[in-house]
Amino acid sequence: MNAPKIPLPELMTSGHLACQGCGATQAMRFALKALGPRTALVLPACCWSVIDGPFPHSSLKVPILHTAFEAAASTASGLKAGLEMRGDTETVVMAWAGDGGTFDIGIQALSGAAERNEDIIYCCYDNEAYMNTGIQRSSSTPIGAWTTTTPGVHWKKRPKKKMIDIMAAHSIPYIATASVAYPNDLIEKFRKAREIKGTRFLHVFAPCPTGWKLAPELSVSMARQAVTSKVFPLVEVTDNGRTWKVWKDFEPTPVKDYCMAQGRFRHLSEDELRLVAEGIEENWQYLLSREAGSAFVPGLQH
User: Fold this and answer.
1) What is the set of domains in the chain, with CATH numbers?
2) Half-sphere exposure of 90 (CA within 13 A, CB side)
3) What is the predicted pLDDT for the residue at 121?
4) pLDDT at 55
5) Which alpha helices (DSSP H) does 45-106 contain, by range?
6) What angle do CA 260, 265, 271 make, to 5 degrees?
7) Torsions phi, psi of 180, nearest 5?
8) For the purposes of burial, counting CB atoms within 10 Å of the CB of 117, is it exposed (0-12), middle (13-18) or buried (19 or more)?
């Protein structure tokens, strides 16, 4: 996972409009390296609908179809059907949406596409809030986090939605999480997804220095700490949702160190940080139980 084996072809150019340190931009660059030029993108309202650049200019060397906030999966399904009617079975159609457009606004269309097992890749680049519209809370925002709609003492009190479990319940052929801090792993998972037919769901951790109150140069190190602190585990789910694999080959780091490096968590007390860490460990044990195929009883694993 550490040795650089990044392919050379570049399908993202300079001139994009991302903020410094944007994890979503890194994620797109690596994903397109894996998928190649025979890729068609569907972009709903999200940071990337701005990052790409103003019409008629684009920072990407693949065709893009912009669509409404809630319609990424349904638009991608229609685009794939249209290409197949024209005899094009080679072009990969990928919906590329943020967490707001996936966990919240777009979940109905995504669920419908997954239930039909549409032959598309759906990628959620997760920066854990509605960053493009002003850092509002989404159901992907982690417990304890500050946003403009969960300010001060009113920080988010509910845990992050378990999107991987939701997608696994649809019995689709491939689901994976990835992080921009581990580009080889990310690229390999997109390559796997390209070779599979049916609905493939990839959940990519993409730090937002602006929304996280984080120095831009720390973006990749935060993405790495999210994995090693077990905040964002790297997981693959195959066999139509039945087989889970959790990456465990790392030296664990403290949740507190991860949180205190970001301004969005600095309001938390020691007791509150301890509760956040306990919740993260419980989720980790839950994932290990899914991998082992055993029952999980909250509170008994640690």
Assistant:
1) 23-292 (3.40.50.970)
2) 3
3) 98
4) 85
5) 47-51, 72-85
6) 85
7) -65, -15
8) middle
Strands (E), the chain: 39-43, 64-66, 92-98, 121-126, 174-179, 200-205, 235-238, 243-246
The segments of the chain whose pLDDT lies below 50 read: 300-302
**Residue 64 in tokens:** 């893009």
Give yes or no for a contact between 235 and 176, defined as CB atoms under 8 angstroms apart: yes
Q: What region, left, alpha or beta, does residue 135 occupy, with left being phi > 0 and alpha being psi -120 to 50 degrees?
A: left
State the pLDDT at residue 294.
73
Sign of the dihedral through C-alpha 204, 210, 211, 215: positive
Crossing angle between the packed helical segments 23-35 and 183-194, to the nearest 10 degrees:
50
Q: Helices H, strands E: what count in the chain?
A: 10, 8
Other CB atoms within a 10 A radius of the CB of residue 108 amount to 13
